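Sequence in, structure out. Go.
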Amino acid sequence: MATATNVEANAVNTVEWLSSPSTTIVVPVYQRQYRWDIGGCEKLLTDIRAVAGEDDAHRHFIGSILSAEDAAGDDLILIDGQQRITTIMLLVAALHHAVQDSDPAMAAELHRVLVRADDDRRTKLRPHDAWTDLYESVVLDRRGDVDRESRFDDNYAFFRSQVHADEAPRIWRGLRKLEHVSITLGASANAQQIFESLNSTGEPLRDHELIHNYILMGLSHAEQLAVEEEYWLPIEQHTGETIGAFWRHYLVMTTGREVAAAGEHGVYAAFRDRFPRVDVERLRTDAGVWREYAEIYGILLDPTREPDPEIRRQLVHVNTFGRISYPLVMSAYGDHRRGLISRAELLETLEWVQAMFLRRAVVGLPPERLIARLCRARAQGRDALMRAVARITPSDERVSAVLKYGELPHAAYVLGRIEGVTDPAPFDVEHIVPAAPGDTWSGDGRRVWSDYTEDEQNSHRALAPTLGNLTLLEQPLAERVFGQSFPDKQVGAYARSAVPETRELAGVPAWGTAAIAERTARLTADFVRIWARPALPEIDDDGLTPILDAVRRRGWPAGWDREFDYVEYRGEHWEIKDVRALFNRIFRRAWTDDRAAAIAYSDRRGGPIYDEMAWKGHWDALDDSHFLYMGWDSNYMMNALQGVLEESGIAAEVFVKYSYIGNVM
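Output:
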C-alpha cells in the first residue's frame, strides 16, 4: 500500500482536539477575515441540536481542518478551517458564559476548550493580529476593553440569545459529537496547492483573498506579520470593499489585457501569471508598488483626497462614467506622481477619457473593452495614446448630428460643465418642455397642449430629452414650477435662477421645436469644444465614414451588394447593405423631409427625379407625378445622394459603416 509522505490525516473528535493542552492554533495573516454570518451560525446550531438528540453512536462530521506546525514547533498554523473553528469557539464561549455561575463543572470543561493550559489569559485560537483584541474581548468576556463592533460580537450575541442555561447540557452533548479530519502538513508539502484544492468546493474564496494567501503562504510567520503590516493592511485601508476591483484594474493597467471579473478566479489567475515567483526580496519591491497604486485607487474613489483643485475636479468628472477608466487613469496619475509626465499631460489625459466616453455614450457606442488597448498605447507614449483615443472617439459631425435628436446622456454632468455649475448636486435637470406635458401646458401662453396637432405633440415629446430642451435649475425653484407652462416657469423660476444659461430662458418669447433647435445648435458648439476629440487629421469614428468621404466606384464591382454593414442617418440606424438601396432611401427621405432641396438638385443636374417615366428601365414612384430613375451606375448614385444631402444641408449627419467586403473592394 502506498503511503503519503508530506500529509498526515487523522479522524479526531473536534472538542477533544481543541481541549488538548498541546493544541494552540494561530490563524496566519494571509487568511481572509472571519465572515460567517448568522445563517451559518444557525445551521451549525441546528446540526448540533440534531446530533445531540441521537444515541451515542451518532457523530456529526464538520469536514477537514488543514494545519501545519509552526517553525518553532509550538503552535499549529491553521491553513484551512478558520471559519468553522472560530464559529465553534464563539458557541463554546456563549455556552461557557451561560453556565459559569450555575454549573462550575461544565464551565471548567468549556474553559479548557477556549483557553491555553499554560496561560489562562490567552485563548487557544489566536486570530490574525488585526482581529485578536476583538476576538479575545468576546471570548474572554472583556468587551469593555474594545469599543469596535465585529462579526465576532454579532455571532456570539446570536448564540447567547439562542442558548440558555437549561439547554446547555444538550448543546454540550452535541458539541462533543463533532468530528473532523485533521490534516497536518509535512515540511515538503505544497500548502498553497492543497489549500486551493480544499477550497474548490463550498463557499469559494474571492480573488483578492487568494492573492493574499498566495503572496504570504511561503513566508515565515514573522515575515508574514511584517509584510501584512507594512503592505497588505495599507492596501486594504486604501481600497476598502473595492479591493477586488482594485486588483483587476491594476492588472489591466500593468498587462494591457482585459481581465475577466467573473468566472473561475480570472483575477487571481492573471495575478499568478504576472507574478509567477513571490520571494521575500521581490515581494517587498512589488508590494511597495501595489501599495502606491492602492493609495492612488483610493484617491480615484474619493477625489476629495487630491490636494490639487483642478486635478480633483477632473477626477470627479471622470467618476461620472464609473470606474471603467481607472486602469488608464491610475497609469497616468502614477506617472505624474513620479514626475514622469507633467500636470498638463495628466489633465489632458483625463479630458480625453471624458470626451471619449461621453461622445460614445451620445452616439450609442459601448464603453466596454476599450481601456486595455489604451493602456497598451499609453505605454508607447503620449502620441500613441492620442492616436488610440482618436480612433475610438466619434467626430464632431457625428456627435452634433445625434445631439439634435438623441437623448442626452449624463445630463447633470454635461449641463454642469456647459453652464459653469461646479456642483450640480443641488440642481435638478429641468425639462423645459416636460417629458409628458399636461393638457394645459403651453409653450407661448396662448395655445395649450391639447390644441397641438398630433405631429406637433410627437415632435415636442421627441425633443424633450435632448440637449436643447434641458437646463439646470435650483431644486426649490424646480419644485415650485413643476408641471407649469413655459411662460409661468419664466417668471416663477428661470428669471430667479443663479445659472446664467437658465436665466436667459426668461427672455425667450416662446418655447417650441424651433427654439429647441436654436439652443441645441448653440450648446452643441460648447459641447464639442469642452469634450474635444484629440486634434488629429484622420477621423475613424469606430469604423464609420462620413457620407461625403464615401468611395465612389465605377460600374458594379464584385461584392457591391454587401458593401456596407449599416448606415447612420441623423441618429437613425439603417440596415442598408449597398449603394443602390441607399440612393433610393436617401431620395425618398429627401422627398418627404426637404422636397424643395430634392427638386432643386435634380433640376440643376438633369435628374434623377422626373415628371414622367420617359424611358424604359427601373423606376420608383415618389408620388403620382414624380418618379425616381433607378438605372444609374454605382458612381452616379453615390454622387447624386451626396449631392442631395449637401443641398439639404445635412450631409455631415450621415455616415456609412463599411463591411469587410466593402473595405477590401
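Check: The chain has five domains: 7-202, 212-301, 303-394, 402-530, 541-664. Residues 103 and 165 are 9 Å apart (CA to CA).
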